[in-house]
Amino acid sequence: MRRFCIAGNWKMNKTPEEAAAFGARFKDRLADVAEAIDVVLAAPALALPALRQSLLDSRVDLGAQDLFWVDQGAFTGEVSGPMLRALGVKYVIIGHSERRGRFGKLEIDPDHVGYFAETDDTVALKVAAAERNSLIPIVCVGETLAEREAGKTDDLIQAQVRTALESAERPEQAVVAYEPVWAIGTGKTCDTDEAQRVCAMIRQSVADLHGDRVAQSVRIQYGGSVKPENAVDLFAQPDIDGALVGGASLEVDSFVKILQSV
Ligand code: PGA
Fold first, then answer.
1. Which of 12, 17, 95, 193 registers the highest number of CB atoms within 10 A of its CB?
2. This model's pTM is above 0.85
3. 223 CA to middle of ligand 1, Å?
């Protein structure tokens, strides 16, 4: 039986003080959340120490939003696996569509999008770095609207899953987040049946790579405008084992309501 895994992705929001205030309020509400769910908060790296302090002795796991694939060296501005481990981080988001330069709601100059430039290959390197440092990767996959309309969704997602996980040493521990790019931050949720279909296809892709036992262990999240209003339907799907929640994880009340939808 897979445990649900629900992760808040705060993206570039919250100072250390704001993170600590959230943590203190959130900790008080955890008694209302079922024990059978793994609860993760992926904060900006700078806010992780304050968030950790505010959540001491709670069941919430810390997450990071990215890591570099080398553990140490001359890589100005990067954050490494050992650094995250030292902060008590357990999960790390890898290959989020925003880091791949693919935005659901474009707010920056399209000419500058390429600077983010995460690719399937760098995602695979980062999965290896996460495993090397005993961090659980949350690997994000998903198609843009143009790719969906061109009928490329399935091939693209299968390729993203394959490249990210084919060399994984502990693929059974990985989390995969299906996040259609056009549904991120836009208020448009993917139809529940379609989200289930794609998540089942992702599980089949994992089975093709690593066999059924691994595929049945991997947790698959849906992400993209998850809110208290749509969480119940999404969580009722057999291949959806949780969610990666952006905007609705920034407020304690809405995040707790999503956790209570399981
Ligand atoms: P959203 O973001 O919930 O704000 O759409 C989800 C994500 O990007 O992980």
1. 95
2. yes
3. 6
Where is 92: in which H helix or E strand? Answer: strand 89-94
Residues having CB within 6 Å of any atom of ligand 1? 9, 179, 184-185, 223-226, 244-248
**What is the chain's pLDDT, residue by residue, as a tens digit (262 residues)?**
799 999 999 999 999 999 999 999 999 999 999 999 999 999 999 999 999 999 999 999 999 999 999 999 999 999 999 999 999 999 999 999 999 988 877 777 777 777 777 999 999 999 999 999 999 999 999 999 999 999 999 999 999 999 999 999 999 999 999 999 999 988 888 999 999 999 999 999 999 999 999 999 999 999 999 999 999 999 999 999 999 999 999 999 999 999 999 9
DSSP state of 188: P
Q: Catalytic residue at 112?
A: no
